[in-house]
Amino acid sequence: MAKYIFITGGVISSLGKGIATASIAKILESCGFKVSLMKLDPYLNVDPGTMNPYQHGEVYVTSDGAETDLDLGHYERFTHAKLTRLNNVTTGQIYSTVLARERKGDYLGKTIQVIPHITNEIKDRIKKVAKESRAEIVLMEVGGTVGDIESLPFLEAARQFGLEEGRGNIIYIHLTLVPYIKVAGEIKTKPTQHSVGTLREIGIQPDILLCRTEKPLSEDVKAKISLFCNVEQNAVIEALDVPSIYEIPLVFKNQGLDKIILKHFGLRPKHTDLKDWQAKVVDKVLYPKHKTTVAVVGKYIELQDAYKSIYEALRHGGIANDCGVEIKKIDSESIELDGPEKTLEGASGILVPGGFGYRGIEGKIKAIAYARENKIPFFGICLGMQCAAIEFARNVAGFTKANSTEFFKSSTEPVISLLEEQRKIKEMGATMRLGGYPCQIQKATMAYQAYRKTLIYERHRHRYEFNNRYRKAFENNGLVFSGIYPKKDLVEILELSGHPWFVGVQFHPEFQSRPDKAHPLFREFIKASMLLAARRGA
Ligand code: GLN
Questions:
Q1: What number of helices (H) and strands (E) belong to the chain?
Q2: Which of 536, 76, 105, 518 shows the shortest CA–CA distance to 349?
Q3: Could you tell which of 67, 310, 382 is best to mutate to test the pocket of ligand 1, judged by most ligand atoms within 8 Å of the CB?
Q4: CA 520 to ligand 1 centroid distance, Å
Q5: How far is the CA of 150 from the centre of ligand 1 (A)?
Q6: Of 136, 300, 321, 498, which residue is most buried, by most CB within 10 angstroms?
Q7: 74 is catalytic
């Protein structure tokens, strides 16, 4: 029988609940337990796939093609859990299922209510993950902040879970803020007391508190929180700001969080080892030997969360090369205004990430031309690869009007366009080319040099494709199509011969990169960038 941990958040959002959840899972995994993780999102959208990045940040894609919350990215980066569409549940999904069942008449004339029908559906989905993943411990992160109206059904389901599964099989962890008030020179526990109070009104007594704080918590403060919140003092865990998110599992472990959890569950650790994580991940992030600067040219640059997996994958590439990666976030529209020389100065690598719509496209194309002409390592991802194709068509292959039909429907030189099957689609939700697809790699290419394999699987999220009509003309001008989806003969990877490192990929390699196992393309991109940085420094 699985054990369950619910993680809720209090006081304010953006305290790093996703990373905290991933870190707890990591330390339990390091004790030898198989874990799975879920994100329970209280919003009404069925999935975040149709949401604007300004609303939601990055959309993380699982290998089975689900468009999910970015916290699943943290879960996969920190643990070995294999996540699928089952691991992200939204209110929208819960209601769709219950209402479809009601229309079929499955409820046999009963009144359908939040309790028990909605809460039962939530609990069933949690149990399904436990069963299918065969995890020994399942962690559920409840989105939003305690006190929100919309998260109430999830919290009620969490409460019922404790009753039904037995309190010894359930742990409630509450992540809260303990602010430091500068003018008073004091740490304040009141917001935490209120937040725990609100949880208790719902019927949930937290077992463990994770206290986000910028100042260390004294034993006195911990004792106060313990007394007022009815949580044992050793279970008041300090979550101090740290330079790297990858340190957080160590921060928790050093305070004995794994022991507290396992004791509650009556489990004995099978082994316990985070030494590798410390040596091969954390120390490499904190004390790198080399350094480089990489520009990420996108249109949601001011938003921290929009390119989360890209930024992490770049750091992983750094870890693999013992190299600190400084990321310069460049708004592609600023390149349109100020030109690439000025905006991209000092960057020893240029990455253009995925995206949708025309805004900022010409700036990205200018950045790519600059990388190509000045032999600066370039990595184009999804839309970034499509822009590289447009740039090459316009400036090298002689198709001066080249475009994507996403930006210019009646383009006469549509180097990027829709396949027939995509043209027929009317609905927006979950209809892109999504999830894992095989890709055949051609030998003696930059792609092969990175993967050292001829068959790979990568995750996709796009509608448009490279238009095969232009393949010959591109090849004649020095472009190499080094990765192909064989079944449909679609271009998955293109690269430029005679350039130190210039690779565009139609898929999203960032989703499969791990801190202790950098994605091969990110590893090679950073390596190339590091070489350029060293040459420039010399
Ligand atoms: N907008 C492009 C498409 O739909 C690229 C998508 C992306 O970068 N994820 O094909």
A1: 21, 23
A2: 536
A3: 382
A4: 22
A5: 31
A6: 321
A7: no
CB 240 within 8 A of CB 23: no
258: part of which helix (H) or strand (E)? helix 257-265
Q: How would you write 109-140 as a 3-class SS string?
A: CCCCCHHHHHHHHHHHHHHHHHHHHCCCEEEE
Ligand 1 pocket mutation pick from 386, 409, 422 by most atoms within 8 angstroms of CB: 386
238 is catalytic: no
Residue 195 CA to ligand 1 centre (angstroms): 41
Atom of ligand 1 lying closest to residue 432 CA: 4
**What number does CATH give the domain 3-278?**
3.40.50.300
Please check whether residue 510 is in contact with residue 497, taking contact to mean a CB–CB distance below 8 angstroms. Answer: no
Q: Whose CA is nearest to atom 5 of ligand 1?
A: 383
Which residue, among 355, 364, 412, has the nearest Cα to 389 in the 3D structure? Answer: 364
User: Roughly what angle, to the nearest 10 degrees, separates helices 520-537 and 308-320?
Assistant: 70
For residue 536, the Cα-to-chain-centroid distance in whole angstroms is: 33
pLDDT in tens, 158-210: 999 999 999 999 999 999 999 999 998 999 999 999 999 999 999 999 999 99
At residue 14, the pLDDT reads: 80
Q: Confirm or reject: Cβ of 463 under 6 Å from ligand 1.
A: yes
Count of C-beta atoms within a 10 Å radius of residue 338: 12
Q: In 164-187, which positions are buried (b, 16+ CB within 10 angstroms) versus exposed (e)? A: ebeeebbbbbbbbbbbeeeeeeeb
Q: Active-site residue among 382, 465, 495, 519? A: 382
Q: Whose CA is nearest to atom 8 of ligand 1?
A: 354
Domain boundaries, the chain: 3-278, 288-416+466-482+491-537
Q: Average the pLDDT over 9-35 and give the result.
A: 94
Flag whether the pTM goes above 0.70. Answer: yes
CA-CA distances (angstroms) from residue 401 to 3, 404, 405, 414? 59, 10, 12, 8
If one residue of 463, 490, 506, 511 were mutated to test the ligand 1 pocket, choosing by the most ligand atoms within 8 A of its CB, it would be: 463
Query: How many Å from the N-terminal Cα to the C-terminal Cα in the chain?
Result: 60
Nearest alpha carbon to residue 142 among 187, 182, 106, 88: 88
CATH topology of domain 288-416+466-482+491-537: Rossmann fold (3.40.50)
